[in-house]
Amino acid sequence: MYRQATSGLFKGMNARVTLIAIIMVVAALIYGAFFTGHLADILERMRRSVNPFLEWYYVLLIAFLLLFMIWLGVGRFKNVRLGGDNEQPEFTFFSWVSMLFAAGTGVGLLFWAVAQPILQFQENPFISEGMSPEAARVAMRLTYFHWGLNGWAIFSFVALVLAYFAYRRNLPLTVRSGLEPILGKYNHGILGDVVDLLAVFGTVFGIATTLGLGVQQMNAGLDAVFGWESSVRLQLLITAVIMSVATLSVVSGVKRGVRLLSEANFWLSIAVVVFMLLFGPTQYLIALTIESAGDYLQNLLGMAFHTNATVADGWQSEWTVFFWGWWLAWSPFVGMFIARISRGRTFREFVMGVLLVPTVITIIWIGLFGGTALYHELFGAGGIIQAVDDDVATALFATVAAMDLGMLGIGVSAVLVVLIATYLITSANAGTLVINTILAGGDPEPPTVHRIIWGAGLGLLTAVMLLAGGLETLQSAVIMAALPFSVVVILMVFGLLKALHSERFAARTGSRIEAPREPWVDLEDAGALPTQVKPDEDVKRH
Fold first, then answer.
1. What is the pTM of this model?
2. DSSP state letter for 356
3. Radius of gyration in angstroms for the set of CA atoms belonging to the chain, rounded to a whole number
4. Where is this region: Disordered (predicted)?
5. Cα–Cα distances in angstroms (integers) from residue 401 to residues 78, 121, 413, 507, in the given order
6. Could you give the count of Cα atoms lying within 13 Å of 296 in the half-sphere of its Cβ?
7. Where is mean pLDDT largest: 62-71, 119-128, 208-217?
8. How many whole angstroms separate alpha carbon 432 and alpha carbon 204?
């Protein structure tokens, strides 16, 4: 652990990093509350100024991470285990997959699974005519691209680095540990603090963006079920309720609260998917999902390096830059959460599980929900496009309404509202736990009082972002928050490679990889992970 305070309000935390992080968030809250319009304007201007750079920088970085993760899963390091050489996974495969999927994309996917295909169906750079059968196929391909392998490559990379250094190198489970081979002793000082602050900064705004989108969609669902019209006041109330429940849940810890909620989400999601398959245009949905998945895989390499360089229509910044920024901002949060539940797995198991399983689930989910919406626009009465153009948050519930199921449709909408709420709670409590783990120097059980403080802070920041302009402000905030952390991601690549090669060299020569020597505290008193060691203990490596 790094620089943990032993008394006072910051007991068990890195006092300096925690204090700076709190000041940053409080400053954002005060400014956003009193200068709401100005905040939205500043974020939008900042976004426009960096868009030309991000349109190729994010593309190149994410494409590289995908290729790099594939290499780690099949290359010379594929049998490296995240833990001892004979250590077994802590969680079952089902629990593992359900937790990483629920925390990774549950809320965002519920929001965009219909909205993005419908918006891309109307217009995108790869079609000459919108709202045609060809446009439907391309819309599905683009949605799979933004929610598939590339995005999960970001999550899986950050998670693998954190898990490797925590469980294999006995370093604290925090972002700065991934830079230990590069920064050395400086990693325990100001430079390491900056790395953790960037991770917290990206995580806070990434979670706030996701919560904001989910709250807007939940408001749309309550309108569909109870007729409660969309309003900022209702959205603020929903935010307060969600964050209160999430904060209570996160106190119970990952093995109880988060795991049980994640598994409940997973089963409820399966029930909704089965419903859509049985009551929707079944044959069309199966055919479209298979066809569009093949189209996605066939065009993956070209899309991964597409920068929209010859067309100045703003599509690249509005879609690809936003999504890659969103995934990057979420990567410290989801990466650390996945790392916490992935101990004992080999690189090959980890890469195959985190890259492939969520991507397959995502393809099926988008295929059924997005496919149903496209079917009703192509062959039915339509109406979904108009609803999405009026309010993108209504996309999912407009699709259910278009199925014309009467009271059954209202019941399904009610189930979807519950599903959105549980995904919001899962994301919020996991995010709160991860932020505190970073600020506690890697302690997986940070002090309860700080979990409560950050739960309240996330709720208030989400409220400010909603007041400042909703979707566009949320998008701008997450893009800007992700940019500085992307530099940390690049450095983590070099840190991991250096560590892996040193371990390989040690195995060949029969030498030993030493544990870090400074500055540690008494880890038994701090409640550290079993793999964390005191300075004078030997660390054996094979």
1. 0.87
2. I
3. 23
4. 523-542
5. 48, 19, 9, 61
6. 26
7. 62-71
8. 9
Tokens of 70: 């594939």
Task: State the CB neighbour count (10 A cutoff) for residue 3.
Answer: 17
Do the beta carbons of residue 367 and residue 288 sit within 8 Å?
yes
Give the list of residues 6+ apart from residue 497 with CB closer than 8 angstroms, or none.
Answer: none
What is the tens place of the pLDDT at every residue in 408-441? 999 999 999 998 998 888 788 778 888 988 898 8
| 221-280 per-position pLDDT tens digit | 999 999 998 898 999 999 999 988 887 776 665 556 566 766 777 788 889 999 999 999
84 pairs with which residues across the strands? Answer: none
Multiple choice CATH, 15-61+95-118+144-184+196-223+232-306+326-526, 1.10.260, 1.20.120, 1.10.8, 1.20.1740 = 1.20.1740
The dihedrals phi and psi of 506, each to the nearest 5 degrees, come to -65, -40
User: Could you give the CA distance from residue 371 to residue 284 in angstroms, rounded to a whole number?
Assistant: 8
Q: How far apart are alpha carbons 223 and 134 in whole angstroms?
A: 33
Sign of CA dihedral 201, 206, 209, 211: negative
Half-sphere exposure of 98 (CA within 13 A, CB side): 20
Query: Any idea what the Cα angle at residue 217 is, between residues 215 and 218, rounded to 5°?
Result: 65
Give the chain's length.
Answer: 542
CB contact set of 94 (below 8 Å; sequence gap of 6+): 263
- SS3 for 4? strand
**8 A C-beta contact, residue 15 and residue 6:** no
Long-range contacts of 469-474 (CB under 8 A, 24+ apart): 469/36, 469/37, 469/40, 470/212, 470/216, 471/212, 471/213, 471/216, 471/392, 471/393, 472/40, 472/44, 473/39, 473/40, 473/43, 473/44, 474/208, 474/209, 474/212, 474/213
| Max Cα distance, the chain (Å) | 72
159: helix, coil or strand? helix
Contacts of 59 (CB under 8 A, 6+ apart): 304, 305, 306, 307, 320, 324
Cα distance between residue 538 and residue 534, in whole Å: 9
Beta bridge partners of 14: 4
Domain positions in the chain are 15-61+95-118+144-184+196-223+232-306+326-526
